[in-house]
Amino acid sequence: MIIVTGAGGQLGGAVLAELLGHLPAEQIGVSAREPGKLAGLQQRGVRVRPGDFGDPAGLEHAFAGAATVLIVSANSTGADAVRLHSNAIAAAAAAGAKRIVYTSHMGAGPSSPFPPMPDHAATEEVLRRSGVAYTSLRNGFYASTVPLLLRAALATGELRVPEDGAIAWTTHADLAAAAARILVDEPFDGPTPPLTGPEAVDMTRVAEIAARITGRPVRRVVVPDEEYRQGLLAAGLEVPAADMLVGLFAASRRGDFGPAGPALAGLLGRPATTIEDYLLSALAAGPGR
């Protein structure tokens, strides 16, 4: 049985949908903090059990009978994130799982200025010490971030963000399809190659693409990191969220989120989705939706 955590979230839910196209529902289980919201899956034959990364004993029950557990990274940062991931890894091992698959990131590293990246690196170290075979999905940066960065720019005509480096933006849908493929029949041992979109683009190129799609002028303007941070705080963001966005640009300048690689397309059996194709649909729905 393959167990998927975070099945109520965007990535976990997309992986589950892909798995249901590969396997009978009875071979799939999910763990969720609010299992009642997944009653429709249970009716289809998927095993649904409560599971919270903060409750190690409950997780072991949620993972019972699993051959493989997909651990979707927690929506937190710092020591708390590593603690939660460690709980899930220990529970999977205790439940007898033969393989753990973890949603890491291509930029994982202990010195990254983008807060989730040291957490991913620390979690990968826990996986290495777990005694269980594991696959660490080195996912590219989510393309869903781009409409959020463009929200103000489409109103003002200026994309005012810090100096950046090219990012190999990658869609949730492509990553979910690749994860399902790895879960079912093509495991990697240890970290995968970077699973990215087909090209790495910078904010100047993003502005050009947005202008072409919307027919509105969008000019890229470089602003200092601290000016950008203060603008985010003035707009109502909490300090951790503002610091995370500043860290995104600092890490991209180091080249942490590029270049693009061929591994994702190889798993998909088709080209990965370009950022322009993604934005064609995302901006039609409205930026940030």
Task: Describe the secondary-structure layout.
Elements (H helix, E strand, L loop, with lengths): L1 E4 L4 H11 L7 E5 L6 H6 L2 E4 L5 H7 L5 E4 L7 H16 L4 E7 L10 H14 L3 E7 L5 H12 L1 E4 L10 H13 L5 E2 L11 H12 L4 E4 L2 H10 L4 H15 L9 H6 L6 H10 L5
Organism: Actinoplanes nipponensis
InterPro entries: NAD(P)-bd_dom, NAD(P)-bd_dom_sf, NmrA-type_oxidoreductase
Protein name: NmrA family transcriptional regulator
Query: H/E series, N to C?
Result: EHEHEHEHEHEHEHEHEHHHH
Biggest sheet overview: 7 strands, parallel
- In CATH, the homologous superfamily of the largest domain goes by the name NAD(P)-binding Rossmann-like Domain
- Low-pLDDT segments: none
**Shape, per Cα inertia axes:** globular
Under CATH, the topology of the largest domain can be stated as Rossmann fold
The strand order across the widest sheet is 3-2-1-4-5-6-8
Beta-strand share of residues? 5-15%
What is the number of domains?
2
CATH class of the largest domain: Alpha Beta
> How many helices does DSSP assign?
12
Radius of gyration: 19 Å
Binned, the helix content reads 40-55%
Termini Cα gap: 34 Å
Q: Which architecture of the largest domain per CATH?
A: 3-Layer(aba) Sandwich
Structural class assignment: alpha/beta
Number of DSSP E strands: 9
Average pLDDT taken over every residue: 95
Domain NAD(P)-binding: 6-146
Protein name: NmrA family transcriptional regulator
Pfam families: NAD_binding_10 (PF13460)
InterPro entries: NAD(P)-bd_dom, NAD(P)-bd_dom_sf, NmrA-type_oxidoreductase
